[in-house]
Automatic annotation (TrEMBL), chains A, B:
The keyword DNA repair does not apply. InterPro entries: ArsR-like_HTH, HTH_ArsR_DNA-bd_dom, HTH_MetalResp_TranReg, WH-like_DNA-bd_sf, WH_DNA-bd_sf. It comes from the Bacteria. Residues 6-99 form the HTH arsR-type domain. Keywords: DNA-binding, Transcription, Transcription regulation. This is ArsR/SmtB family transcription factor. It holds the Pfam family HTH_20.
């Protein structure tokens, strides 16, 4: 079982979160996860190459935007909605509808 | 007199704006310009190396975040508040207070 490193909530930084969101593919993944349901890389990536999906998920995880949970052979990705809200109130709630308009 | 290229309002893209804002120095510049007063690179850069300031201002300009106006030997930078509001309503209004907390 792989273990993933995640920043503590208080270590999530605004530039890092904005960078993680500064890509149409990653914005689309975050919009998809915003319903609160966790998804595998395969479910999130669609037809994108696996290595590219893995890269995007790593950027999102390291910035503190998503949480990755191992369960047996699978990894499930979820949005750190509460942690982001605690750190940057209102940010996701305002960026995601703008992103949803264009990248869902 | 130098002429600067700026994207049209409708060509400003969300990932580009988020990327432009994904750096503490650029966030600080944008927070400083958010009072609506235009400033030279020297005023914005403080003690940062001139070439670094020029790079950051170029990223902000190309993303459509700032407007650069030449006047004689000087260039004045201003925030494209209205254009950004037209394109992404509420975005700056929600990101800037979060940035101001940390990068002013």
């Amino acid at each position: 079982m792989r273990r993933y490193v995640h920043p503590e909530t208080e270590d999530i930084e605004l530039p890092g979160v904005l960078f993680a969101l500064s890509d149409a593919t990653r914005l689309g993944m975050v919009v998809e996860l915003s319903d609160g349901v966790e998804r595998t890389a395969g479910q999130l990536g669609g037809e994108i190459a696996k290595s590219t999906v893995a890269h995007h998920l790593k950027v999102l995880r390291e910035a503190g935007v998503i949480f990755v949970r191992s369960e047996g052979p699978r990894c499930y990705n979820s949005l750190r909605t509460e942690d982001l809200e605690a750190r940057f109130p209102g940010l996701l709630g305002h960026v995601l509808p703008l992103a949803e308009r264009e990248y869902r």
